[in-house]
Specification:
Layout: H1 2-27, H2 31-54, H3 59-101, H4 110-115, H5 117-121, H6 127-151, H7 153-172, H8 178-183, H9 190-229, H10 234-244, H11 253-265, H12 269-283, H13 285-298, H14 302-307
Length: 308
């Protein structure tokens, strides 16, 4: 009897594990929606508290107003910017293709001939061909990736629905303070749990503030640089850089690296050098400013920021 009960418990546990694995696999494509909902919750929680505690609006009304506000301030601008990115990338790719079609193999990269090192060390290497191939590959990859991301309307709609549904639940649940709900789930004493949740809140807020300030600064630098070298659409590319700066590692380089390659193909070497220097500088701003900002805002040690 005892053995039979043990077998049933084991089968029940196995079923739960399998079900959890299947559910996790099914929800994996929408993990960004869950993360976005929690980020929006942290950002707009003060607004929600203002509406419910100061203005005395009902919870569901306040939640709907906050969701509309978040859509106006965050979601719609992001969608608009990414739509503009696709249009600009198509223009750049067409321009690169046109310039490549009229490339003069003997004269296009005179600066490389003047240096002489490449031809002397490896005369059989087709430097121009490799650069042109690299530009075409990067342009095609960016175009396919961004166009595919925006054209996947069904996936975006599902993710957006999940995000706003979860955001609405976070605001309107019986206990609207998520930190209090987590206290029952964390296996620590009340004192240590409060300390842990406070630290998590400080980390999230300092990270958001640091990321926003750095993104705006990087977008500003790109805008000034592009204006100086005569690239059109300065305001657009500054906004695009600001948005892409939220992406780790690949953020701002998605804008300035293709610009450098484009200027090389069009023989504007001075502009390419200026953009390259500015790009390297702004790519290291994150490593310099983020530890300082997070230390001031969230009392986070700079070493922890660098590891993050």
């Amino acid at each position: 009897m005892k053995k039979e009960r043990t077998v049933k418990l084991a089968l029940a546990l196995l079923s739960i594990i399998i079900l959890a694995a299947v559910l996790s696999y099914a929800l994996l494509p929408y993990i960004n929606a869950f993360l976005a909902a929690f980020i929006l919750y942290v950002i707009f929680k003060p607004v929600y508290c203002l509406l419910t505690e100061r203005i005395k609006l009902k919870k569901n009304v306040s939640a709907i107003l906050v969701m509309i506000l978040s859509m106006i301030l965050v979601v719609l601008p992001l969608y608009y910017v990414f739509t503009l990115i696709i249009g600009e990338i198509e223009v750049v790719i067409n321009s690169i293709t046109t310039n490549i079609s009229y490339v003069d193999i003997t004269n296009n990269f005179d600066i490389m001939k003047n240096i002489g090192y490449i031809n002397e060390i490896a005369p059989d290497i087709d430097v121009q061909g490799k650069i042109v191939s690299l530009v075409s590959t990067i342009g095609s990859y960016l175009s396919k990736y961004l166009i595919g991301a925006v054209q996947n309307i069904s996936g975006l709609l599902i993710s957006g629905t999940i995000m706003f549904f979860l955001l609405y639940y976070l605001f309107t649940s019986t206990n609207t303070d998520v930190s209090k709900q987590l206290q029952d789930l964390i296996p620590f004493s009340k004192r240590n749990t409060n300390k842990l949740l406070t630290e998590m809140k400080n980390i999230i807020q300092s990270t958001l503030i640091a990321t926003l300030l750095i993104a705006v600064l990087q977008g500003t630098i790109i805008g000034i640089t592009f204006y100086a070298v005569g690239i059109s659409g300065v305001a657009l590319w500054a906004a695009v850089t600001t948005v892409l700066s939220f992406l780790p590692v690949v953020g701002a380089p998605l804008v300035w690296v293709p610009a450098v390659l484009f200027k090389l193909v069009t023989q504007d070497y001075v502009a390419a050098l200026v953009i390259l220097i500015a790009g390297i500088a702004l790519s290291n701003i994150d490593n310099v400013l983020r530890p300082y900002i997070q230390k001031k805002v969230g009392a986070m040690h700079p070493f922890v920021s660098l590891l993050g």
